[in-house]
Amino acid sequence: MLELYHYWSSVCSVKARIALAEKGLDWTSHHVDIFAGDQLTPEYLALNPNAVVPTLVHDGRPIIESTVIIEYLDEVFPDPPLTPRDPYDRALMRIFVKNGGDDLLQFIGLTSIDRYIGPKLRQRWKGHEADLEAFINRKPGNRAMQLRAVRGQLTREEINAAYARIDVALDRMEKMLTQRGGPWLIGDYSLADIAVAPHMHRLERLGEAKRWEQKRPAVAKWYERLNARPAIQKAFSFLPPDGKGYEEVGLAAAPAST
Amino acid sequence: MLELYHYWSSVCSVKARIALAEKGLDWTSHHVDIFAGDQLTPEYLALNPNAVVPTLVHDGRPIIESTVIIEYLDEVFPDPPLTPRDPYDRALMRIFVKNGGDDLLQFIGLTSIDRYIGPKLRQRWKGHEADLEAFINRKPGNRAMQLRAVRGQLTREEINAAYARIDVALDRMEKMLTQRGGPWLIGDYSLADIAVAPHMHRLERLGEAKRWEQKRPAVAKWYERLNARPAIQKAFSFLPPDGKGYEEVGLAAAPAST
């Protein structure tokens, strides 16, 4: 029995859904509306003290952190395998998995908030800005950067620094694909591809696909292959209960592959 | 042939040294003076494009990220094993490993800079503050929070939020040790213990051992057991080439166990 607590457009939730789809697993959906504060209820905090999505519950036992969830799924449901056998290749894979869980998450998150989520939130909470900030401050952790992003206060230097980190990640992908010859990041399809896929999709919706379409041809071809996978299409097609998709959150640009 | 590029007091470097010591492995040391900018040379960036320590080089092949390095060492040198066999226990272990590589690193890092490293740097670079900021800005990534910490500009709210996250991690440790009965976080000694050990040591040197000595008795006993391990003592006893230790960086408080 597999249950997933997730939010339809959250990059980390998409990551878990891709792994579930690649394994052909059935799961029960619990949609957590993170913009309504569902992640701050005592019930959810008991499952996930970090107050973030996703959380996988397998036979009643919770597993948090999308990077951990996808490794767990691959170990418990080994067919098809999504981890290379060679230890050095596994290390290379885990660098991508980690990168998807920290740098990419943090910096694409910041640019997402700055360009789309922030303006949307300010529009929705117009006249109640203090309530919006109080809501953000209820979330655990250091929210200083997030608050500044929501307020539209990030400087050009901060935005540039975020994209510089994203470019480092894209360069690593281009180098891996070129040196190893593909077709996937580590050779065979693996958790490395799954870990970065949702971030690439978000970048595309932020209008940043030019970063690979114009400059990193191996990544561009990899991304086409990625979007042709049924599991990827299935994971991205999940919609919230009201059926309102990417247009609603200001991410209207359609992926190039659809 | 194992080589480690590391800095003596860096928490992530200590983590790699603990894993090497637990496995009884010999390795060649390359000390990277991160305060002198050694991590920004083209030679080092070719090994580690993130410009951070440590980097492990095994038979000529570099492995970056301390969380990835310790899993790699455990896979390649399986004796003694440092990973549980049960997949759910492995997931629990990886949550601690991840936590040591993000939340704990980020928030203990901020409080370290605010209380010790920042004042020391301001003293050393007195009259050359612009050069200090230029040096910090040469490092990749979004350095806004780090710059504010170096300037002593973090607010009480930001510091409190950082300690709140640290407390969440300590609570998780207390809960694991209590529920599972120890003696180590997941039961047997594992990468989970290694991943958080350097952070606990840093917290102690920041004068924050009261967080477990007064409130979390299972963590307090675990920390005593930890410090009794020869590999832990060996990893923490590594000194820089000039032989100047913790006193030099303003972290003079001796661990309770020594």
Oligomer: homodimer
Give helix and strand order of chain A, one letter per element, not per position.
EHEHEEHHHHHHHHHH
Mean pLDDT of chain A: 89
Q: Report on the biggest sheet of chain A.
A: 4 strands, mixed
Count of helix runs of chain A: 12
Most residues in contact: chain pair:
A-B, 42 and 42 residues
Descriptive labels:
homodimer, 258 residues, alpha+beta, 4-stranded mixed β-sheet, 12 helices, 7% strand, disordered C terminus
Question: What do these coordinates show?
Answer:
2 copies of one chain form a homodimer. Chain A is an alpha+beta fold and 258 residues long. Helix content of chain A is 56%, strand content 7%. Chain A has 12 helices and 4 strands; from the N terminus they run E-H-E-H-E-E-H-H-H-H-H-H-H-H-H-H. In chain A, strands 2-1-3-4 form a 4-stranded mixed β-sheet, covered by helices on one side. In chain A, strand 1, helix 1 and strand 2 form a beta-alpha-beta unit. The C terminus of chain A is likely disordered.
Give a summary of the structure in a few sentences.
The structure is a homodimer of 258-residue chains. With 258 residues, chain A is an alpha+beta fold.
